[in-house]
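Morning F.,

Quick status update on the modeling queue. The single chain you submitted on Monday has been processed. Sequence for confirmation:
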Amino acid sequence: MTNPRQKAKTATRRTHPRKRRVGLFRFLTLICMIFAATAAFGASPRALLMALQGIDAPQPPHMLEDSLILSVKPSRPTRFVGARFESEGWRKLHRFQLNDNGVFVLDYTVPEGVREIRYRIVIDGLWMPDPSDPSVDVDDQGNTLSVFILEAEPHRPIVNPRIESDGSVTFTFTGAPGRRVTIVGDFNNWDPFMESMQESDTGVYRITVRLPAGRHWYYFFTDGRRVLDPYNPEGGIDPDGLRVSSFSLPS
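Structure tokens below.
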């Protein structure tokens, strides 16, 4: 006759492998999620940071993916270097960062559809064209501007959501071409038919909206089903208790 205590030990031993298998599955799932997030978000910023840190002398402006790389190394001690761009109506002042080689560097995300970039830089309060850019022009007011012309639309890594220079937010969805895709979130009262996304390229859908600062929740809706944002690892729960994607918009 089997001792009840021995039966309990046997049952415990039988359940341990299942628990280990479940734990291993969850661990591998977490690793895959981290790897996917790194692949979607980590590669481009890493390459950009390495490129900026590797500049040891002023270079002519050039593109790295969808960013224009500017570099300045003044001949005298300098406290501040900045730039303004015509594509932003000259409103925003972009500050250069000083890298480890003593070169002031700036990466400027080129707005979609812009092929000619006209800009000026300021060094300690003195406005001038970019000394590293041989291409210049003169505007109607007699100001000398630097000019950089893109040969083609740059490759744009998908970053969701993308916060534009004017504070608006762009969402991107990739899927089958010719479909209706909408974005659903707290910012449109969770209406699955209000915000239609436009197919800008084959199978690539985008929408740009203005949102208040703070935490937001959303998902994509297509072919009658909800789709979480595969390019955004952040998530949350909607009012119905279902998983959604999430992000925080700074003020």
